[in-house]
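dolichol kinase
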Amino acid sequence: AVLVESLLVFTAVLAVHAVVWDRFSWCAVALAVQAFYVQFKWDRLLQLGGAVFQFRGAANSGLLPASMVIPLLGVVMKERCRAAGSVYFERFGIVVASTGMLLALFLSVLAVGITKPVPTNTCIVTGIAGSVIIYTMKHSLTVSEVIEVLEVLLIFVYLSMILLYLLPRCFTPGEALLVLGGVSFVLNQLIKRSLNVIEGRGDPIDFFLLVAVVGVVLLGLFFTVLFIFMDSGTWISSMFFHMMTAVLGLGVIMPWLYRLIQRNPLFWLLQFLFQTQTRLYLLVYWTFLAASACGVVFYQNAKRSSESKKHQASTITRKYFHFIVVATYVPGLIYDRQLLYVAAVLCLAVFIFLEYVRYFRIKPFGQTLRHLLSLFLDERDSGPLILTHIYLLLGMSLPVWLFPRSCAPKGTLPGAGALVPYSGVLAVGVGDTIASVFGSTMGEIKWPGTKKTFEGTMTAIFAQIIAVALILIFDSSVNLNSSYAWILASVSLVSLLEAYTTQIDNLLLPLYLQIMLMA
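Tokens:
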């Protein structure tokens, strides 16, 4: 299964390399080769319990698929923005690619360093790949860009030491690279933009995303340190939690956002949300869907109390939320992508805040949330945090957030790139959902080395093709320019990756589909 997963990732890397064909795509190929070697060292460390931190069990390290995501995103973004004539974002893509490669090399060197005896062949491969990448960076990056890449690496090292210690068994090494690497990059971008504020430069919704992500992470770190010294389950601690949340929100996050967008954040947000009648209709519709999702949670818990033998929700029950999320995102993508962008940021902040309330058992809702959400746990929620629903939201939202708007003057990319914002809907909302439902109910032929079925994968590919046809009918901005073969190949590759990967598919699959469609 690991070999097939690696083969699929290599196929994606070579496909991007064939389209781009420059020094950075060659570096991506070199990085993929060394990550393939090092992945087996990480897997051996995890099996023998020799890793520095406690990682999520029942999964391989996932180093190869995770290592390639950020570099490939940077490479395809650079190429798209170069074609559009946007020099600033072309350089930004180069920085993203370089940062991703350096973070992946750091994890590789870490694994090689703690493996005993020292693996000679892997050291040679890592050394050659690292030399090629650093040589390319030396001749491609300016001094300020090199400093920016090193800053992200420094933030990543410190974040990894803190969060992997505080949150054992929540991540595999690959998932830690993706999540903590992304947070490190966002934090560095926020610091950089805060120090160089130029009035009128930058979109307020981008600043809103940066501040929201960094704000909720800092909030979590603050309360984690605080509750080491006091019991979080008491009423006094709970009152202190809510009070300090308000103080940090109004006293730190709001002024920070005000400095970036040069206007009152609350007034800007209210004006933005209710700017048009379409937005009002969408907000009412999304409120109804959110209430429906809560209704599913309460109904399933009431059912559990009456049927004491059933302790966990079935796969099909959990996929109800995927259908609800698809119904949420598709109208937003068609009618108002900016509103969807901001609403997804708000939803992410609310999800993470509610997870803090559950994790710290904050009164009056902490214990209730623990009871309600325990029904929907699966084997991937083996750590102290429940992250599956947050990963689902991220998988649907990242293609919207990472869409290079400045490199798409008409609001959409040409060819298959027009489907980039729909990557989450296609890969997770349609593909993963249909594969799980049909595979668990009708599947009989299993893929070698996995529990996933041939019928589930084939049905997922077919469902995504139908979804693309429906998008073409209902979204007039999408024009594929006869790139149907590339779309079919991309959808098939990602569906096969869903069958073979043991990583969090909600997070990994949309990013790979986005990379393939942008290429």
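Residues 277-306 form the longest helix (30 residues).
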